[in-house]
Amino acid sequence: MSLPVGLISNELKIFETRFREAVKSQTPLLDRIMRYIVKRKGKQLRPMFVLLSAKLCGEITEPAYRAASLVELLHTATLVHDDVVDDSLERRGFFSVYALWKNKVSVLVGDYLLAKGLLMSLDHNDHRILQILSDAVRKMSEGELLQIEKARSLNLNEDVYFEIIRNKTASLLASACSAGAWSTSNDDSIAEKMRLFGEKTGIAFQIKDDLFDYASENVGKPTGNDIKEKKLTLPLIYTLNNTDRKTRRDIIYIVKNKNQDKEKVNWVIRKVNETGGIGYATEKMNEYKKEALNILCQFPDNAARKGLEELVLYVTDRKY
């Protein structure tokens, strides 16, 4: 499944120019780091969701480009901070900012990106868009802290899992769709409908990410990585709730105390497969995908809607 880049290729080029301008700094070290970040940009999924959501509701104008830039600034800031929190030396196959410039610089770079996003919105009176996206930043922080809290006790049921991913992962995608829709419609009801679409898609995205941890093929993410980090994801939660007491006790012991032992981690992965955790998580992911596509069906059948539908399918069918 490929990304629908062709539908908004010109708009993406304009966005990239706006984003490069937005992160520029007069401080040489900061500017050098910004150039490093821009060169190693990811798939730009979130800006694509902003621009296609905007196009779904009207003609893309400057507020939509600023919304896309704000989303990318916030997303990049959270990634830089996440690498510090997770002690991660790699990002998208390259050295992370944390690996090259260490803690202090990474924290300050993340703060700089957040400040640039806030100022860009305030300078252009994009108050509603800023409000939509600031709410996402709050939720992301709450989701991350809730996950850290639950990882200590390994006490996590399915409801709490969905609360974590709704806040930690889905909130930014939800806000990206909402901000894009608002930028061309100025209609709160349409923005809310697209927020819900983005949330459903974001939850499906995270479940797909969780499933990669149990895949045997090379997916660009180490197999068993979530177990090593003591993260209770949906396939594992299902297994813990649907296995005998001894197996449950053994799994919890391994996740808590033997999570760096490859053999033990592989045993947990086998148990998750045997118990049906993969099938259950896949089913849940497809439910959220269907709900997201049903929301899109409420909009006119045009190129932008088709592009968003393709993005949803990409999120759930991707190989990495």
Description:
This protein has helices spanning 9-23, 28-39, 45-57, 62-85, 97-123, 127-153, 158-185, 188-212, 225-228, 234-241, 245-257, 262-275, 277-296, 303-317; strands spanning 90-91, 94-95. The chain has a two-stranded antiparallel ribbon with strand order 1-2. The chain is mainly α. Helix 8 (188-212) runs antiparallel to helix 13 (277-296) and helix 11 runs antiparallel to helix 12 (262-275). The chain is built from 14 helices and two strands, in the order ααααββαααααααααα. It is globular and about 60 Å long. The protein has one domain: Farnesyl Diphosphate Synthase, CATH 1.10.600.10. The longest helix is centred in the middle third of the chain and has 28 residues, at 158-185.
Task: Tell me what portion of residues adopts beta-strand conformation.
Answer: under 5%
**CATH hierarchy: architecture:** Orthogonal Bundle
Largest sheet: 2 strands, antiparallel
- Overall pLDDT score: 91
Number of strands: 2
Under CATH, the topology is which? Farnesyl Diphosphate Synthase
**Overall morphology:** globular
Spatial extent as radius of gyration:
20 Å
Q: Which CATH class applies here?
A: Mainly Alpha
Percent of residues in helices comes to over 70%
Order of secondary-structure elements: HHHHEEHHHHHHHHHH
CATH H-level superfamily: Farnesyl Diphosphate Synthase
Helices, by number, come to 14
Taking the alpha carbons of the first and last residues, their distance comes to 11 Å
Flag low-confidence runs.
218-222
Whole-number tally of structural domains: 1
